[in-house]
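Retro notes - structure team

What went well: the batch runner handled both jobs without manual restarts.
What didn't: labels got mixed up in the shared folder, which is why I'm recording both outputs here explicitly, each with its sequence directly above its tokens.

Job 1
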Amino acid sequence: MTAEPVSTAGQPPVPGTGAVALVESPVQLLNVLEWAHIHPPTVPADPAGRAGADTSAPAAVPDEPAAGPLTVVVLSPVDPTSRGQLRRMAELARDEGAVVRWFEARGTRGGLLRTALSLAPLLFRVRHLVIGDPFSRLVQVLLPLCRARELTVVDDGTATMEFTEILATGGRLVRWHRSGRRRSPLDAAFGIFSSAARRRLTPGKRRHVELFSAMPATPPPGMALRTNRFAWTRSRFGPPRTLTSTDLIGTSLVETGVVDPERYLAVVRSLAERHGAKRYFAHRREAVDKLHRLAAETGLEIVRPDLPLELVARRGPIGRTVLSFPSTVVHTLPLALGGTGVRIVVVDIDEEWLTAAASPRAHTFLTGINHSARDLHGLAPAGDA
């Protein structure tokens, strides 16, 4: 089942911010639109309407972004599902008045070099840079090209919580599920860029850094915090029609090597039986073979959303009860679905489900995501539901 297209015809555009955003995932682009929605405009949008034109070809990059609207630079991933969702989000961004530039920086020989050369004039002159993933090696390589004194980091899911902790402690910009692995020569080479990126993203006398987040992240001293309440999502879509059934949200913890696949299948089957779940909303990085097996052995209808789940859920229809493993959505869905009557229930990860290759931090980190969601949003654990 594929989610239906979303229409934003007739909606007011995002104010011109004169900023440049580097994004690599659909969720990052969603959060950039949320940021632009509440960010005070600095320059009016182009009166000729060029901001809404199709500018997916990266050839002609403007040299002075501060003189125009928000420019979104998409550093495209390789996997088809993420690319499809990003193209749908790019359509929404153009509808909102943003200029979208699409770059194939991965999967092709010389892609990174071509991207860096094309973006150099833009990044060198931009006054406000918005970053979707500070852990991205691609972003870390491009960051030295930027001299912006205003930087904003928007949510890239639960990684935001790691990002602020690392800035506060001075550690390496490495995601939690990779922190326990042996470093390769390539990791050591990129360590130079990682260290430079951490310094660049640390607030200073001549550099203002802002965190725009819906997560329970504590920014280090000197970093401004602006809360993402999903105002753009709530103003554009919904409220949704709710179903009497239960929906289950999938996770890519198997694909990242954290959770054993057989354990995961057994847990999903048990949850579906106990809670009467009918649909399974797949994470964009879940493997096709795994999803086929889930459908065959649990009877769940597999839904592959074509947009971030916050938009799909807000548009509806959505189950009256939604079960989720530890992930970003246990913090974002309560905001996006506030006032709709939808009940979010969190599923804890048992330590016995983890693989031998899982990071030593895995269980603590995943448990912390659920506990903070219960405290902040009053969510119930699956065992009590």
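Job 2
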Amino acid sequence: MDLDSVYRAEYGRCVATLTRLLGDIGLAEEAVQDAFAVAVGKWAGAPPANPGAWIVTTARNRAIDRLRRESTREARHAQALLLHQPAEPEEAGPVRDDQLRMIFTCCHPALSPLAQTALTLRLLGGLEVPEIARAYLVPEATISQRIVRAKKKIRDAGIPYRVPEAAELPDRLGPVLTVLYLVFNEGYTATSGELLRTDLCAEAVRLARALAELMPGEPEVIGLLALLLLTEARRPARVGPAGELVVLAEQDRSRWNRELIAEGHELVRWCLRRDQPGPYQLQAAINAVHTDGRATDWAQVLALYDQLLRHTPNPIVVLNRAVAVAEVHGPALALATIEELDLPGYHLLPATRADLLTRLGRTAAAVTAYDEAIGLATNDTERAFLESRRANLVPGN
């Protein structure tokens, strides 16, 4: 495992652990970044057996050194001395996981919704600003400003890094679910480089399981876990032998993880029995249909998308629904449903248009749409897939 891989896999855990030790998110993040800078020279391409522990220990020591240098008051000295003590007693409260605790802390109601999720994705997922901006379809400058302001708000308002009381958990739930969903999505389709970041997928699933243990009677929590499990189950078939993207219709279903599918289906059935549908439960139900049997029942998928659109009337749902419309009613009607969509910078809109235009035999318009999608795609694997589809329309070009 190289240093970049360690950074992607361990950054969030290390920041969360250091925040618990230091009680200061900003100082924790700086200390972890310092530790990774030290690792560049120390590891020489060969990480230690437990790189995360090495980073935490080094970051802790660097933080102590910084506090000693900068301390001008007894409180700072006391804080540095506390860091020398052995592991502190486990903090009481319902959230035991450092990273899950960090998510709830960053989702404090004093912060705006965008600041909550942007900060958490940066600190927990280790996502860079461009990756977060892509998830929200907003300019990078906007995300940078939100993160800076959120850190300042936490510091100036004295927002504590602590376990929320049980009564506070429901109010924090929406942003927490959003964060886990976005972390998984970044792992399933990375902003850049190769298609998958399995470390992020695994971490999102782990935290979703922890959240489900914390709130076992909350349907949307169970729905999110089911959604992630059913999506993760298809991951082994999502890339071909050469690392190329394989779309759902062309995947080898024998490669899907049947244990995850069975678990996800059971969770969906649990949600159905509660009869309190929400966006994550409906998305989970859609994925349950995709993973049930030898072929997708597109009429059922479309009915679920109609229900999801009533719950969550946004252009992404409209775009995804168009795929089901095409399968049930044909590409012409599907194309009509997305012609007025406005999703600046979102490559899947022109990619979907290109596919529908191809199916309609409108080759010239499809090529133009593929060119637009290729220009917007930032993931190498997705771009190569789009280029191959375009090449099929214009052989030898």
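One thing worth noting from job 2: Residues 272 and 281 are 8 Å apart (CA to CA).
We'll revisit the folder naming next retro.
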